């Protein structure tokens, strides 16, 4: 039964099935040809292995076809933006770690850039290079998580383990760098927190060819598999117009052919000095989004190699940053290209050492808003593929 | 052969010499060695939970296998912040688990609210407000190794349990464990 053949819902009262009362509710529908169809309301989540966090999706299904999918968010709403109003500018940095917990470096960086713009802090060049290197490595780790969960959702658990291999290596590098595996608190207003350990760059340069090799192995293993292609191709097609008008960014927008990457088109930091490409998809389906992520990892490796080649010794923190930064009254917004898209932080200062207001523009939240549109007409099993291809992180969605 | 040896060791290990203790040690040995876990990953710690079950750390070799179905599991690993909106779902999944069941609170958020202890209006200050927690692991997030250590601690705790209601078996702990057994590690 095609989803578009259903035109209206007549009644949802009096048709409750006693057996399935707890988990589903039945509504009566009438198809265009006049035959009645049952519509089931299936609740997915908030704790479900395929929802990538604590997303709840209220799904209306006709047989197996999703007619309506409504994401319910807020299960991880920790009130970070409100807590930030009671913290000094430096104390907010650990909170931003816990927003996008798959890619903590980005939220650190976006917040730090916003504070730097607000307080007029100039960052030393070496710190900018270190930020680029760590954030591109973080992009690799984050995309590996995304690709891995996409493969896990489509039934290829082996590819998940292969992608985690690369991710674990990146995390080991971060552990060498700042002692933490997941919440780094590394990028701070005015620079970065500590100097790299001895031989760290050499280790990365020695590892990158190995990573390239294992990445192409993952490429062959997962994308070369015709089951994976069958599960991903044509699923959740997003047109370029919709991507722009819904505010999608990152690989979700680029998979639909929107050439929009803040590193190129609203460039920041030292990105203009590097030679890299922006992978663009054409069909806008889950397959193209996943392919965009895969090729972005290759581009990140190129950027890391160039950055390590160009980096010069020097200070890693701006001079004279007080412990209590108290910017002049005003506001500032700055955004960076995170693994999920355009991640921005808006800060308002009233002249005190605490932010008057902090607002995070979360790419995951904007991308998740596409789910009802993309999932409609697909089967229930494809709903998790669509959700996985949007790559939401609920720390950032709910904040 | 190894299994037979282990069985024999488990049957011989406890004192008392009555049938109940022998059955107890067999039951505790069986329960402690195959703790399937319900990965209740809500936030950052879920990443470490996933990393723990993959090739580098490999939980599977300790008999702990993540199984996202409350009917199949013995231990619920609460990994991450529990908000007021999420708490009913966590409690309900815990209630769906079959007895005997245990809970591991992984990470500072599940232990006490962690970094969100102060000023947050939506975070539950520790999952022990809604569930009986057996093992707490500190860390934000804890390393996967400490997750595995928690499973070993839980195994020790399970070794004190008896199939007779209200009865405890005497077990020597490697770490002090208040309230779990008759004799803790700090005993003379």
SSE layout:
The complex is a heterodimer of chains A (399) and B (188).
Chain A lengths: L5 E6 L12 E8 L4 E9 L11 E7 L2 E8 L7 H5 L7 H6 L6 H16 L5 H29 L3 H22 L8 E2 L2 E2 L7 H24 L2 H7 L7 H6 L5 H5 L6 H4 L20 H25 L19 E8 L4 E8 L7 E5 L1 H6 L2 H5 L4 H11 L3 H5 L1
Antiparallel strand pairs in A: 1-2, 2-3, 3-4, 4-5, 6-7, 8-9, 9-10
Helix pairs in contact in A: 3-4, 4-5, 4-11, 4-14, 5-6, 6-11, 11-14
Chain B lengths: L1 H12 L5 H15 L3 E5 L3 H9 L21 E5 L7 H10 L5 E5 H6 L22 E3 L6 H15 L30
Helix pairs in contact in B: 1-2, 2-6, 3-6
Give an overview of the whole structure.
The complex is a heterodimer of chains A (399) and B (188). With 399 residues, chain A is α+β, with helices and mostly antiparallel strands. Chain A has one domain (80-398): Orthogonal Bundle (Cytochrome-c3 Hydrogenase, chain B). Chain A has 15 helices and ten strands. In chain A, the strands form three sheets. Chain A has a five-stranded antiparallel β-sheet with strand order 1-2-3-4-5. In chain A, helix 3 (104-119) packs antiparallel against helix 4 (125-153). Chain A is globular. The two termini of chain A are 39 Å apart. Chain B is α/β, with parallel strands linked by helices and 188 residues long. Chain B has two domains: 1-33, no CATH class; 35-163, Rossmann fold (3-Layer(aba) Sandwich). Helices cover 36% and strands 10% of the residues of chain B. Chain B has helices at residues 2-13, 19-33, 45-53, 87-96, 107-112, 144-158; strands at residues 37-41, 75-79, 102-106, 135-137. Chain B has a four-stranded parallel β-sheet. In chain B, helix 1 (2-13) packs across helix 2, helix 2 packs antiparallel against helix 6 (144-158) and helix 3 packs across helix 6. The longest helix of chain B has 15 residues, at 19-33. Chain B is globular, with a radius of gyration of 17 Å. The relative contact order of chain B is 0.15. Classes of the chains: A alpha+beta (399), B alpha/beta (188). At the A-B interface, helix 5 of A face strand 1, helix 3 and helix 4 of B.
